[in-house]
From TrEMBL:
It comes from Marinomonas fungiae. GO terms for biological process: response to copper ion. The lineage of its organism: Bacteria, Pseudomonadati, Pseudomonadota, Gammaproteobacteria, Oceanospirillales. Keywords: Copper, Signal. GO terms for molecular function: copper ion binding. Residues 1-21 form the signal peptide. GO terms for cellular component: periplasmic space. This is Copper-binding protein CopC (Methionine-rich). Residues 52-139 form the CopC domain.
């Protein structure tokens, strides 16, 4: 009897694990856009973890309202050297901002009207110790 119970438990675990995998796969595909391309960018936090306080939009955000600006909020003043906003076609969106200006904790860039798409923000900034940092995050404009 004991062996049968164990087998049933194993089957139950296998079934629930399968159901969970299905849900996570389906949950990413709402609307017509490919949400599958989001996670890689979100995972890439190498070297920026200690300097980046927060971003707008947030990493991995699904933005229903138009995104009119980008904000990088650092934990210490940083001199922003480069910011690139790239859509799913790999082409950068033209941005107007001042490179290599004063070190700031909060850096904001106004955006042109964004088409619905998946976007990646790549940034490079210099810390007060002269250290160059970079990072990337992603969001989706619906
Ligand atoms: Cu979305």
């Amino acid at each position: 009897m004991k062996a049968v119970k164990l087998t049933l438990a194993a089957v139950a675990i296998a079934v629930s694990a399968g159901a969970m995998a299905d849900n996570s796969g389906r949950g990413m595909e709402h609307g017509e856009m490919d949400h599958g391309s989001m996670p890689d960018v979100s995972m890439n936090h190498d070297g920026m973890g200690s300097m980046m306080h927060s971003t707008y939009p947030e990493d991995g955000a699904m933005m229903m309202a138009p995104v009119e600006h980008l904000s990088l909020h650092f934990t210490q003043p940083m001199q922003v050297m480069n910011v690139k906003l790239v859509g799913s076609d790999g082409k950068p969106v033209a941005l107007k901002y001042k490179r290599g200006g004063e070190a700031m904790q909060e850096f904001t860039i106004n955006l042109p009207k964004l088409e619905p798409d998946t976007y990646q923000v790549h940034w490079k900034a210099k810390g007060q110790d002269g250290h160059m940092m970079d990072g990337a995050y992603g969001f989706m404009q619906h």
